[in-house]
Write a structure and sequence with these properties.
The chain has ten helices and 22 strands. A hairpin with a 4-residue loop joins strand 20 and strand 21. Helix 3 crosses helix 4 and helix 3 packs across helix 7.
Length: about 400
C-alpha cells in the first residue's frame, strides 16, 4: 500500500485501483512517486534535473494541470549503479561506528596559555547594529525604522559576567567526564576563563576595539560560542587522561559492504583495489587521487567515502556537525588511513581535523580495531609522501 510509510526512490508509475475516500489519501499516494532519485546538478541551469512520475486513476485536484504544448520530457541521462561487489570482498574496509567519544579528566584542570592557539575576533565580522521597523498590517513600515545598537549589551555584561557565562557553557561540555564535584569543576573553569579573557591569546581587530573596554566586552559577548569552543578544545586536549569509545548499539562496526546501491550520472571509473564498483568523481583532482591510490604499491584497498556512512562528529561555533573525509585506505602494513583532499584550509577545516585526530587517537587507544592514522593531501603530487608517513 503506497499510502503507508514505505519509501522507494525508483517509482516511475503509480496506478490507483481502489476507491479513494479522502483528498489527503490521494496526496499521500502521489507523494510516493515524488522521491527524488538524483541530486546531480545540471551544469547548464545550476538546478537539479527534472524528474517525472506517471500517475493513473488517482483523482487528485490539488495540483493544477500545466498548460503548454505537452511535449514529452527529455530522456533520462544514463546512470551508473554504485554498489559493493561480492567478488571483491577482499578489498572490504571496516571501521568502528563511533557515536561519541567520552573524555575522562583528572580532578585538577590545567591550561598552559602559552600553548593555546590565539583566538582571532574581527569587529567587521560581528553584527553590532540592527534596524527595526514596526509592522503594520503584516508589512514593515520603512518610514519608522529605529536603529538598535549593542552598546547596552556591553554595559550590562561586565568581564566577570562574561567569564561566568563562558565557564557555565564549558562546564556543560566537560561535566560528563569529570570525576569530582560540580563545585570544584565550576570553580576551576571560572579561574581558567578569567585568565584566558585577560591574556593576550585573544586577538581583536581593529585595535581600537581591543583598547576600548566597552567595545571589547561587546565583541566578547557576541562571540561567546567561539570563546567556549576554543576553550573547551584547549582544556580537552591538555587534560584528557582517558578516552572511551561509545559505539552504535545496533551497528557497532560498519564496512564498505554495508553500503546500499545508489545511482549517479556523474563521471566515475572502476577501481581494481576498491570494494565499491565505481568511484564517483566530484573533481579532476579527486579522479587523479583515486587513480594514484589504485596504483600505489603500498595501498592494499581503498574506497571513496561516498554513501559509506563514515562520519566524525565535531563541534564548531556552538553546534554539532558531521565530517565526512574523502577516502578510506588500508595500507599494505595493515594501517587504516583516513585521507582528506583539501586545497585551501579554513578555521572550520582545522576544527574538523582536530576532532578527526582525536577520533584516531581514541580508536588506537581502544586497540580493538587495528591501527589508524589520518592525513591531508594538499595536491596530487604530495600523495606518495602522505601515504609513506603511516608506514614508518
Amino acid at each position: 500500500m503506497l499510502s503507508e510509510g514505505w519509501d522507494a526512490k525508483t517509482v516511475t508509475h503509480i496506478m490507483g485501483l481502489r476507491a479513494f475516500t479522502s483528498q489527503l489519501l490521494c496526496e499521500q499516494v502521489v507523494g510516493r512517486g515524488l522521491r527524488r532519485t538524483s541530486y546531480d546538478v545540471d551544469p547548464e541551469t545550476g538546478f537539479y534535473r527534472a524528474e517525472f512520475v506517471n500517475i493513473f486513476g488517482v483523482p487528485f485536484t490539488f495540483l493544477p494541470h500545466e498548460a503548454g504544448d505537452h511535449t514529452p520530457p527529455p530522456p533520462t541521462k544514463p546512470r551508473t549503479r554504485i554498489e559493493p561487489l561480492p567478488e571483491k570482498k577482499g578489498f572490504e574496509i571496516a571501521w568502528p561506528n563511533v557515536v561519541r567519544i567520552d573524555q575522562v579528566y583528572g580532578t585538577r584542570l590545567a591550561l598552559d596559555l602559552a600553548q593555546v592557539a590565539p583566538l582571532h575576533l574581527a569587529a567587521h565580522e560581528t553584527i553590532q547594529l540592527a534596524e527595526l521597523a514596526p509592522t503594520v498590517d503584516g508589512k514593515a513600515d520603512p518610514s519608522r525604522i529605529d536603529q538598535i545598537t549593542l552598546e547596552e549589551l556591553g554595559r550590562r555584561n561586565r568581564i566577570q559576567t562574561i567569564a561566568f557565562k563562558a565557564a557555565a557553557e564549558v562546564f556543560d561540555q566537560v561535566k560528563p567526564g569529570w570525576p569530582g564535584s560540580r563545585e570544584l569543576l565550576l570553580g576551576q573553569l571560572v579561574r581558567i576563563v578569567e585568565r584566558f579573557l585577560a591574556s593576550d591569546r585573544i586577538a581583536i581587530e581593529p585595535s581600537v576595539f581591543a583598547r576600548d573596554p566597552l567595545r571589547r566586552r561587546v565583541l566578547l559577548t557576541l562571540n561567546m560560542s567561539r570563546i567556549v569552543q576554543h576553550l573547551f578544545d584547549a582544556i580537552r586536549l591538555e587534560n584528557t587522561t582517558e578516552r572511551k569509545l561509545v559505539l552504535d548499539r545496533e551497528h557497532p562496526v560498519r564496512s564498505t559492504g554495508d553500503m546500499l546501491p545508489w545511482y549517479t550520472s556523474k563521471p566515475c571509473a572502476p577501481g581494481a583495489r576498491s570494494h565499491i564498483s565505481f568511484c564517483v568523481f566530484d573533481s579532476a583532482w579527486e579522479a587523479s587521487e583515486a587513480f594514484a591510490l589504485d596504483h600505489h604499491p603500498q595501498v592494499a584497498a581503498w574506497a571513496k567515502n561516498d554513501h559509506l556512512g563514515f562520519e566524525v562528529h565535531y563541534l564548531f561555533e556552538g553546534g554539532v556537525h558531521k565530517y565526512r573525509p574523502d577516502f578510506l585506505i588500508r595500507l599494505a602494513n595493515g594501517v587504516r588511513l583516513v585521507l582528506e583532499v583539501k586545497g585551501q584550509d579554513t578555521p572550520r577545516d582545522h576544527t574538523k581535523r582536530e576532532f578527526l585526530a582525536e577520533w584516531v587517537a581514541a580508536v588506537n587507544e581502544d586497540a580493538s580495531f587495528g591501527r589508524w592514522a589520518a592525513a591531508v593531501s594538499h595536491s596530487p603530487s604530495d600523495l606518495p609522501e602522505v601515504l609513506a608517513r603511516p608506514l614508518v
